Sequence to fold (459 residues):
Amino acid sequence: MEKRSWAEPYKIKMVELLKMTTREEREKAIIEAGFNTFLLKSDDVYIDLLTDSGCGAMSDQQWSAIMLGDESYAGSRNFYHLRDTIEEYYSYKYTVPTHQGRGAENILSQIMIKPGDFVPGNMYFTTTRLHQELAGGTFVDVIIDEAHQVDSHHPFKGNVDFSKLNKLLEEVGAENIPYICIATCVNMAGGQPISMDNLKQLRVWCDQHKIVLVHDMTRVAENAFFIQQREAAYAAKSVKEIVYEICALTDVATMSSKKDAMVNIGGFLAMNDDKLYEKACGLVVVYEGLHTYGGMAGRDMEALAVGIKESVQDEHMHARIGQIEYLGEKLMAAGVPIVQPIGGHAVFLDARKLLPHIPQEQYPAQALSAALYVESGVRSMERGIVSAGRNKETGKNHAPALELVRLTIPRRVYTQAHMDVTAESVIRVMENADKVKGLRFTYEPEVLRFFMGRFEEVG
Ligand code: P70
Fold:
């Protein structure tokens, strides 16, 4: 069948003007930022693909929801609306709002992990693993090997490898595994989904061994869209139905609502178990705020309730993923090495292949991200050895197989023309790749070093 064009299911009511900079200005800015795109001022950025977090465009419906904010300290009506929406769309009975995703991770880790525990997951995420470690736990990667291979075209790179999971179970025993944490559309693997089939098997496994199944649902709608496209049994189901089914297979959820749900700030911890809810309420008042607002303003909870409904619409997801495919396909056509299949929230450049002259200890992805900024003002994010940090016991660098630069697409923000400009910029950097130099740390923070670390060029 001929491939039909698609279009965004919205029109634009307001625009934000962008600033262009000169190459000289950008060369100065990246040195001032210590070759770290997190330390650039956004005024110095032209197309901002650092993240899809909190920088999506809210709809007119969401903005009008902002005006319905009930800012009462306790029992805000917006909390009840949010709680009911989460139950309706995501199945979870109890909701504890938090200021963002890591607030929920902190509470969950503190409640459930005891020192010496092991927490399996389908690849690490930076903040998730850190909270597990701070609570005394050790993260164990149980994702399938294909997830670590840039060239594997596996349609569900987010899947769990049960042989890895069973090996861990045998080694440490179920009593030392408080839960398994499964991310939908695995960020660090390149925005790669887990299949419904794999998740169903995991549910059975968790029931068998009485291990809680936690869901990092930050990008659940994108995962649902891929299930609809790639898993035959789900071809006729809506994204909304699939999202609900995914959530209903799990016990607890942490959510950064700054992504899928298209709000600028917010998150939550959700669950079905009343005892766990009681414990979470006990901690949320210590770290976030009263249990009926957590870290959120009433207006933001209202905008989130609306965002959840918009995020599961099929036509929204089609355009969302379609835009990322558009950029990815353009890059592939020019021979740029990227993670395949193209991910749900971003296109990931393979820095190892693009900069073969830079050894991993000289941070090729960090260098590539800086070079792309200098070339065109496009801001991206390192997702390689810098992000992976150091082993908490040995102090040695984790050396991940994936050494990537993430071009992350905010939701409903940029046009196809911005994608064209971005693709051209990446291609230009690729053509001049031999001029890019490796980096070394001049300042290395102890935790989450990628955020504030500073670098200088080697040689
Ligand atoms: C990103 C953001 C946040 C995130 C996530 C998953 C799968 C939890 C969170 C935490 C922001 C970010 C965070 C750390 C390093 C770089 C960027 N991801 N789980 O850009 O949520 O940010 O709300 O606390 O992707 O990927 P929050």
About this structure: The first strand starts at residue 47 and ends at 48.
